Amino acid sequence: MKKSIFILITLALISFSCNNQWKNIYEKESKAASDIRADDFVYWSTLDGMIKDKFPKEVAEYILTNGNSFFVGKCPICRPTENAIADYIKKAPDSNSTNLSAEIIQSIKGENKTEAQKSFSQILYRYSQEQFASLNLDDENKKRLQRELEADRKQGMGAKSQSFGTFCPSCDGACGIKQE
Ligand SMILES: [Zn+2]
Q1: 21 CA to middle of ligand 1, Å?
Q2: Domain spans of the chain?
Q3: What's the gap in Å between 9 CA and the centre of ligand 1?
């Protein structure tokens, strides 16, 4: 009996903290530029971008289900990217239209893993560029954030296996490296 009450309280706390996290994307302007960390940035840019694009939820689910092709385990940039996609699926309103091209969706879900990774990375690249533009950071904080992202990317690349591919889609996207 006591155990089930404990579980209920834990669940309530978890859902409360998740809601807070979701709320943050709308309150990010109130966060001081010097307090924006690399993982905040990656989370926001992914989530904001997906909302703006009306990213199809079934494609988002496909990416998470096939996480081994899209994310590097232990990569500090892949984690907030995955979290943003999961939160998007849970909480974004459903939509019948999307701003993503049919071509890029087809590529993400296609057989060619390298092409799928490139397409995913191109989307994340666009999202991070848009996020940098919308945050309107001063030079000092923009450079600091870019340094943090670059350090995280190094860590991610160090954790990447050879069989995964030659680059990490989330890391390159967040660090402004455009896959052609
Ligand atoms: Zn990565």
Answers
A1: 21
A2: 1-30, 33-174
A3: 34
